Amino acid sequence: MSDARTDVVIVGAGIAGCVVALTLGLEGRNVLVVERAREVGRVGPDFIKPRGIEVLRRLGLLPELARRGAIERSVIRYYHDGAPILHYDFAAHTATGHCLVVPYGALLSAVVERLSTLPNVTMWFSADVRELEGTRDGRTRVALADGRSATADVVIGADGTGSLVRQLSGIQASRHLYEQVMFLATLPLVASVAECNRLYLSSQRWAAYFYPITGDQMRVASIVPVAESASFRDEPGWAVDRLRRFVSESDDVLDAVRDPAVFQPVPLGRLHASAYHRGNVVLVGNALLEVHPMTGQGMSLAFEEAADLGRRLSSFFRGEASLDEALARYTEQRRPINTSILEYGDRLYRSFPSRERYLESFDRRAHGELY
């Protein structure tokens, strides 16, 4: 098969990879996105904080997301062992005044549909990467299992926590799992969640977060110690009984949970790659960073990171900086931010069983504008 020639190859069609593709595509760069699955994903975070919203605004996506039913939310109420401890109002702490809730599948579909309108952006699905090979002219050839290949000035690894691009480029990263599993379910919306988002914390290391994702559906997220996670799925009624011990103002949510089998498990971990790039291979999204979901910043970090990487690479393609300079600036910009929010997630994880320690750790700024 012939070798495709392009400016950029992005491995991974998740939200980070697609936002980079859109940023570069709108600048007129030739971009190829390769994805091992047969279609874009439908499962991922739904919560976008103000700085992520700003990226969506710059990319012109907010009107389309509004048309698809994106929900603006201003208030999150926090509880510990059933007692209210915090009332977080985005209007009081951010310029935007709200966060945005969009089902991950709807969000990613909106970005991919926008990409499909750009003649300079191509997407290959069912594309398993097998090899990265440097060429004599300093570019990188991406070889696929089916015999196809593409050669580009820049290769971007946006292929998740188990990133093959990261491994093939020799960048080190260890994923450390938290002693928790998150269980996610989508259920019919109830009145308490329609009123506001609610986050419940327990001194027994459980947590629960309830928020709407459409006008008639809600997301129910439960964080459970690993040692108790099997019982969450296998013993009907047991999970709800445990939740009732610390969920105080959302009985209607618990009444809606008929069968724990509707919950899907999601292991929780932390990851920060040792380097952001090597040569002309660079990482973004969960290939680079994974933070604890208690920060509420995972999706927004991916948006910011992807948009920043796109801008840095655009400066290279316009001849305003060398590739090394552009990627060094990307690293210098993102590393301190990522390190800060990663450490903040660790503090929340360690402190939340104690009401006092959690309140001492909680940073209102970090939950809004971030920096």
Task: Please supply descriptive tags for the structure shown above.
alpha+beta; single chain; 8-stranded mixed sheet; 371 residues; 35% helix
Report on this model:
With 371 residues, this protein is of the alpha+beta class. It has helices at residues 15-26, 50-58, 62-67, 90-93, 104-115, 164-168, 191-195, 229-234, 238-244, 251-256, 298-317, 323-351, 355-361, and strands spanning 3-11, 31-34, 47-48, 71-73, 75-80, 83-89, 99-101, 121-124, 129-134, 140-144, 149-157, 176-188, 197-201, 207-212, 217-225, 264-272, 277-278, 281-283, 289-290. Helix 1 packs parallel to helix 5, helix 2 runs parallel beside helix 11 and helix 11 (298-317) packs antiparallel against helix 12. The strands form 3 sheets. Strands 1, 2, 8, 9, 10, 11, 17 and 18 form an 8-stranded mixed beta sheet that branches. Strands 6-5-13-14-15-12-16-19 form an 8-stranded mixed beta sheet.
Secondary-structure map with pairings?
Layout: E1 3-11, H1 15-26, E2 31-34, E3 47-48, H2 50-58, H3 62-67, E4 71-73, E5 75-80, E6 83-89, H4 90-93, E7 99-101, H5 104-115, E8 121-124, E9 129-134, E10 140-144, E11 149-157, H6 164-168, E12 176-188, H7 191-195, E13 197-201, E14 207-212, E15 217-225, H8 229-234, H9 238-244, H10 251-256, E16 264-272, E17 277-278, E18 281-283, E19 289-290, H11 298-317, H12 323-351, H13 355-361
Parallel strand pairs: 1-2, 1-11, 2-8, 5-13, 11-18
Antiparallel strand pairs: 3-7, 4-7, 5-6, 9-10, 10-11, 12-15, 12-16, 13-14, 14-15, 16-19, 17-18
Helix pairs in contact: 1-5, 1-11, 2-11, 11-12, 12-13
